[in-house]
Amino acid sequence: MGDIAFLPNPRLDVRDLRVVLALASAGTTAQAATVLHLTQPAVSRALLAAEDKLGARLFDRTPKGLVLTEAGQELVSGATRLLVDLGDLEHRVRAPVAKPMRIRLVCECYTAYHWLPSALVNLRKSLPGLELSLAVEHTKAPVPALVAGDIDVALVTSSPVPHAQLEERHIFTDEVLFIMSSSHPLASRKALTRDDLRETTLLTGQTPPAEAQWFMKQVFGRERPRLRFEQLPLTEALVDVARAGMGVAVLSEWIARPHLDKGGLVAKRFASGPLRRSWRIAWRREVGDAALRLAAALETTAPRNLSLD
Q1: Residue 142: which CATH number?
Q2: For residue 218, is it within any domain?
């Protein structure tokens, strides 16, 4: 057996990781204290201790709450996986022949089905204790389906999650872009304004109501202008119509990138700032252990942020 002296000796312990994950999810020390059943001063001290051990700031303190720094994002992305692996090891020691758990999964945004099915193939190999199945029929209303117990886990982008009944965790962030023909009248603009969007046809997929409401709120605030939307069932059709100069497609960056690489199309951001969506995983508390294992695995397979440059 190898000498234990040569094994890594991490500065952080499980308690540090749990505090950082709770703060990343809750956004404030007060809310994290409630989750961890600690006092707010105790959570603040624990965060300072973890940052001191690492010699790095994990959160920026803002008027709206705690925001992960780059170092904090790196820690959070790996902390869930570490805790899940430790839990799996303990579980195998205690119950090596435990029956697999069946998880019914759905995505609020149809765009997730561009990457999730292939990701599930690899996830099934890395999560032998889980049996995963897609419940596509609940795509348009995943949160009510979770509350009703019709599904176990959902990937959500826009719908609020009732924390009194469900749990949730951030997985990744993407940006919504405007894709158009390189010959489109708006293609010469550096970025698109609200007035630009009022005057053009916007091409979208089968957008759930919550996603459409999110888009309108992010772009127009309380204003509700009449826009020209055209829904197309397939991404390829949506891109082809945009390439023909018949409208501006509204697409996630990671879906748009392969089509942009083929030429003939350009991508524009919104002039007031990037339209970023937070993808979260929500689950019923009864499947908490399995959901955390799934969340940790999805963090490694989810699309990465891309640059327009």
Answers
A1: 3.40.190.10
A2: yes
- pLDDT computed for residue 79 by the predictor: 83
The overall pTM is greater than 0.90: no
Task: Tell me, yes or no, whether 161 and 294 share the same domain.
Answer: yes
At 184, list the tokens: 């489109």
Number of domains in the chain: 3
Q: What is the pLDDT of residues 135-163, one digit of tens each?
A: 888 888 889 999 999 999 998 888 888 88
Residue 246: pLDDT over 60: yes
The DSSP symbol for 287 reads G
String of DSSP letters for 214-232 = HHHHHHHTT-----EEEE-
Residue 238 has what pLDDT? 87
Biggest alpha carbon–alpha carbon distance for the chain: 71
Q: Which two tokens stand for residue 244?
A: 């023909």
Q: Are residues 264 and 205 in the same domain?
A: yes
Distance CA 193, CA 212 (A): 18
- What residues contact residue 112 under an 8 Å CB cut-off, 6+ apart? 155, 279
Half-sphere exposure of 160 (CA within 13 A, CB side): 4
Query: In the prediction, which pLDDT does 57 show?
Result: 92
**Residue 55: strand, helix, or coil:** coil
Contacts with 14 (C-beta within 8 Å, 6 or more apart), sequence order: 83, 86
Q: What are the pLDDT digits (tens) for 277-294? A: 888 889 998 888 778 877
Please check whether residues 32 and 61 belong to one and the same domain: yes
Same domain, 193 and 259: yes
Is 19 found in the same domain as 75?
yes
Task: Say whether both 70 and 157 belong to one domain.
Answer: no
**How large is the angle between the packed helices 70-94 and 288-301, nearest 10 degrees?**
130
Q: Are residues 168 and 282 in the same domain?
A: yes
Q: Percent of the chain scored above 70 by pLDDT?
A: 85
Q: Report the half-sphere exposure of 72 (CA within 13 A, side-chain side).
A: 22
Q: Does the pLDDT of residue 297 top 50, yes or no?
A: yes
Both 119 and 160 in a single domain?
A: yes
Look at residue 303 and tell me whether its pLDDT is greater than 80: no
